[in-house]
Design brief:
Length: about 100
């Protein structure tokens, strides 16, 4: 199967990606709520890449891993280890209500 504009290299990369995703996701679990299977989802993604000539969604870094947040977390860990602070549990139900 050949895609004239895209070429064999992209086809190989798509097949590798599909294989990798299949190893990470329990089949059907991720897409069943949308009424599609994984093969259909990957086909939709691939067609969108070819049609738009780009990845069809924004890729952004998780802010949890930002440099400033890592500094805050490291300071909090140091405070806990030195006894300056005591970790406590949070009730996420109340947190979500307050948001």
């Amino acid at each position: 199967q050949r895609v004239p504009v895209v070429g064999d290299d992209l086809i190989k990369q798509i097949r590798k990606t599909k294989s990798s995703i299949k190893q990470l996701v329990v089949p059907g679990m991720l897409f069943e709520d949308m009424g599609i299977n994984m093969t259909t989802a990957i086909t939709m993604f691939t067609k969108a890449v070819v049609r738009q000539n780009k990845i069809p969604f924004e890729i952004a870094a998780d802010p949890f891993y930002s440099e400033s947040n890592m500094r805050v977390l490291e300071q909090r860990i140091a405070d806990i280890e030195s006894g300056k602070s005591v970790p406590k549990e949070h009730d996420l139900k109340n947190f979500e209500k307050n948001q």
